[in-house]
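Workshop exercise sheet. Pairs work together: one partner reads the sequence aloud, the other fills in the structure field after running the prediction. Swap roles for the next sheet.
Pair: D.N. / O.F.
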Amino acid sequence: MYNFGIIQIGDNMKTFYDVQQILKRFGTFIYTGNRLADIELMRSEINELFKSGMLDPEEYKFSILILRQEENKLNSENR
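Structure field:
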């Protein structure tokens, strides 16, 4: 587990808010008013941060997993 100030990565990273906090560390704030659009933009930003070496593999893995879970939850609610 890694400790980055206000957020710990690993066992404590579990929510959409945690992913928002990772993006906030890099000055990225995403809010479109459409949760699915927010998830897609956040996924894109997380991918770019990982490709540029700014996120370690564990942060990346947990972030993508959380975003996928949030997207699945929203899709199941809209059925």
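Discussion prompt: Confidence is low (pLDDT under 50) at residues 3-8. What would you look at next?
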